């Protein structure tokens, strides 16, 4: 087993002198970059889409509902491939940027539904009271409803982040070298399955466990501040 680990991770695995552990670390960097920026993009899209879906104006609700329906009704890997090879084919967009856009669009639809559920969980009297004080619908959502909804949706947002982190494993479909693709490259060069695959699985497990722990501590602090 030690020989397999050394051969897969700590010795050159090709004529180019590539060392497995460096490939894994570079793949991990790509995974974290895509996840982080896609989550930011998804959060912005999610809030915007939620406000559009809850707007009294049909011309705002219709495109928002269409966006959520299309994204939730198709696999993320299909969205990624279509975006990179068709939508962005005429533009000089690198694979990481394309992945961020694809996963950001995907995450935005799910975050929108999470936020909408959190807003609907807030007592309707809050909206009525704020409007009676003269606040506009938009100001009420921003200053009164959303701050209360955040506490309700935090666990679900954490789950969405974890799902997004794991979904980035399909970046290899457009040729990007993320964590999972790095493991596949090592496996194809060394013909050793166990070490690269278990290494990737362990890293994903550590990442998700660490984030879950941080989220749990943050939730505890929020409860203490109530």
TrEMBL record:
Gene3D superfamilies: MetI-like
Record flagged with keyword Signal: no
Main location: membrane
Family: Belongs to the binding-protein-dependent transport system permease family. HisMQ subfamily.
Source domain of life: Bacteria
Transmembrane portions of the chain: 30-52, 64-87, 195-215
Name of this chain's protein: Putative glutamine transport system permease protein GlnP
The ABC transmembrane type-1 domain, residue ranges: 28-215
Subcellular location: Cell inner membrane; Cell membrane
Protein's UniProt keywords contain Cytoplasm: no
InterPro entries the UniProt entry points to: AA_ABC_transptr_permease_3TM (IPR010065), ArtM/GltK/GlnP/TcyL/YhdX-like (IPR043429), MetI-like (IPR000515), MetI-like_sf (IPR035906)
Topology versus the membrane: Multi-pass membrane protein
One Pfam family hit: BPD_transp_1
Taxonomic classification: Bacteria, Pseudomonadati, Pseudomonadota, Gammaproteobacteria, Alteromonadales
NCBIfam families for this protein: HEQRo_perm_3TM
Assigned keywords, A-Z: Amino-acid transport, Cell membrane, Membrane, Transmembrane, Transmembrane helix, Transport
GO molecular function terms listed in the Swiss-Prot or TrEMBL record: transmembrane transporter activity
GO terms of biological process kind: amino acid transport
A GO CC term assigned to this protein in UniProt: ATP-binding cassette (ABC) transporter complex
